[in-house]
Amino acid sequence: MEGRATSWISRARSAGRWTLDALLPPRCLACGLVVDDPGTLCASCWDKAGFIAPPHCRRCGLPFDLADAAAGLECASCVADRPAFDRARAAMRYGDGARALVLRFKHADATHAAPGVARWMARAGAELLADCDLIAPVPLHRWRLLWRRYNQSALLALELGRIAGRPVVADLLLRRRATPSQGRLDRARRRANVASAFAVRPRHLPGLKDRRVLLVDDVMTTGATVDECARTLKRAGAASVDVLTLARVAREL
Ligand SMILES: [Zn+2]
Ligand SMILES: [Zn+2]
Q1: What is the CATH number of the domain that holds 185?
Q2: CA atoms within 13 A on the CB side of 86
Q3: Residues lining ligand 2 (ion), CB within 5 A?
């Protein structure tokens, strides 16, 4: 299961960690301020982070206002149009705090920040991690992968696999084409935009049958990407597909 990408990422990660740990004081994962412990946020970023706590939609994880609070509820959007994934959870709302963290994670400190970020995700997705047979990242298209040098979702998947003791299949899915940004499209167009954008890598097909998959990504914005990944995995025989992200927009998908 350990593909070339995986070993390359772990090498890059240990090299990065060694250098940073040896030479630099620990810094806030979002703003870079010097802090006491590695893998944490400073007090001000902690306040802005917007960690998600129950109650939330039991399917997509949308945080509910306390007024709506009732166990086992689904949001209107999940009732109207059930997503292909079974459950989605996120550690934070995608607001100013999470945006700073995600940007930094994407473009600078990814290897250094991954363990801290993954711990918050593991807390938010404890049930999902306990239930899954394998963990896989949402793939980047190749040109994006080269540009960013590594897939941050794969880094998070590897950390989560280590925390939960589950196998990580870093190249389970492949992206057949780049998908244009879909923030401004309506739901039907977003779905069309990502239709058939993903495929299961043929050599992983036999190992996928009847398995419970946990998909990992950094941010869930419209939900269309993870929804299409889940549809692809289920068509290929996965028993269930859950989704765990660092952050999600706090409105209906
Ligand atoms: Zn900070
Ligand atoms: Zn929902």
Answers
A1: 3.40.50.2020
A2: 16
A3: 57, 59-60, 62, 75, 78
The verdict on residue 71 lying in a domain is yes
Contact present, 192 and 133 (Cβ < 8 Å): no
Query: What is the identity of the amino acid at 161?
Result: G
- What is the 88 CA–ligand 2 centroid distance (Å)? 9
Nearest to 94 by CA among 247, 205, 222: 247
The Cα–Cα gap between 33 and 42 comes to 7
- Cβ atoms of 92 and 51 within 8 Å: the answer is yes
Residue 84 CB: number of other CB atoms within 10 A? Answer: 18
In the chain, the amino acid numbered 181 is: S
From ligand 1's centre to the CA of 44, what distance in Å?
6
- What pTM was computed for the model? 0.86
Give the count of domains, the chain: 1
What is the chain's pLDDT, residue by residue, as a tens digit (253 residues)?
A: 444 555 555 555 555 555 555 567 888 988 889 999 888 899 999 999 999 988 999 999 999 876 656 667 899 999 999 999 999 999 999 998 899 888 887 776 677 788 999 999 999 999 999 999 999 999 886 666 555 556 889 999 999 999 999 999 999 999 887 776 766 777 788 888 888 889 999 999 999 999 999 999 999 988 999 999 999 999 999 999 999 999 999 887 7
- Asked if the structure places residue 253 within a domain, the reply is no
Distance CA 213, CA 172 (A): 10
**Cα 131 to averaged position of ligand 2 atoms, centre (Å):** 20
Name the residue range of residue 113's domain: 4-248
Task: Pick the ligand that lies closest to the CA of residue 243.
Answer: 2
